[in-house]
Specification:
The structure is a single chain. The two termini are 35 Å apart. The chain has 2 domains: 89 residues, Glutaredoxin; 123 residues, Glutathione S-transferase Yfyf (Class Pi), Chain A, domain 2 (Up-down Bundle). Helix 4 packs antiparallel against helix 6. It is built from 11 helices and 4 strands; from the N terminus they run βαβαββααααααααα. The protein is 48% helix and 7% strand. By secondary structure, the chain is an alpha+beta fold. The chain binds glutathione. The site of glutathione (GSH) has 12 residues, from helix 3.
């Protein structure tokens, strides 16, 4: 495989999907151009020239060095956060974002599948649905954690952790600050419920996720608290 080419990431600070890719790029220590897409007023060139689905994150890979607002037809356009995270993992194998062992690799992808299809706090935060499903998912996630090791697959921080971290962070920020469409006080209520000893392993794990430098460097808490969390997702 040749040396990786230049990357332009079309992103938005408020977007948890985009933060997955920013974390992967930070973990792999990649230098790239970041272009902030205003999700409430997307540039008219974005869908036709970058991502027909008109969503962030998207990457323009390779091609000539151009202004991100004039994407080149010669770069490869890629989208979907989990695809992009695996793409970074493939380009930079030394970052160990994907386990080498096929069984662990499958387990990492299974973990991603669980968080992607089951950890859906937006339903509670934006649509005031009951939060019990969040507690149930915490139990499932906890059951997938290894006996020992800091992260979902052991001591290496992998795609499994990357897929989950931005969503857990926004969930926590929302409930701690009572930001969302749910009744005031429900945030504190779910936080209290999650403090039960039966979630101890889950809590130790998520605390470590939020301490990871790649997460901290890519999370803009001030911007998030002043805007509605998950807007546009
Ligand atoms: N499945 C996509 C979801 C990306 C997504 O929903 N992005 C939102 C922001 S969080 C977006 O760009 N929304 C703009 C729109 O739908 O108009 C992924 O994993 O990348």
């Amino acid at each position: 495989m040749g040396h990786p080419k230049s990357i332009t990431l079309y992103t938005a600070k408020i977007c948890p999907y985009a933060q997955r890719v920013e974390i992967a790029l930070a973990e792999a220590k990649v230098e790239y151009k970041a272009y902030q897409v205003d999700l409430s007023n997307k540039p008219e060139w974005f869908a036709p020239k970058v991502n027909p689905a008109s969503k962030v994150p998207a990457i323009a890979y390779g091609g000539p060095d151009v202004d991100p607002e004039s994407p080149s037809s010669e770069s490869t356009k890629l989208a979907e956060s989990l695809v992009l995270v695996e793409f970074i993992a493939d380009l930079y194998p030394e970052a160990n974002l994907l386990p080498k062992d096929p069984t662990l690799r499958a387990k990492a992808r299974f973990f991603v599948e669980v968080v992607n299809s089951k950890f859906l706090p937006m339903r509670f935060i934006l649509h005031n649905e009951p939060y019990q499903s969040i507690l149930d998912t915490a139990t499932v996630i906890q059951s997938l954690l290894p006996e020992s090791g800091k992260y979902a697959m052991g001591d290496e921080y992998t795609i499994a952790d990357i897929a989950f971290t931005p969503f857990y962070a926004r969930f926590k920020l929302s409930v701690e600050n009572e930001i969302g469409a749910y009744e005031y006080g429900k945030g504190r209520e779910i936080l209290n419920a999650l403090q039960a000893p039966k979630y101890a392993k889950f809590n130790a794990y998520v605390d470590r996720l939020l301490e990871r430098p790649s997460f901290k460097a890519t999370f803009d808490e001030v911007k998030l608290t002043t805007k509605t969390i998950y807007r546009g997702c």
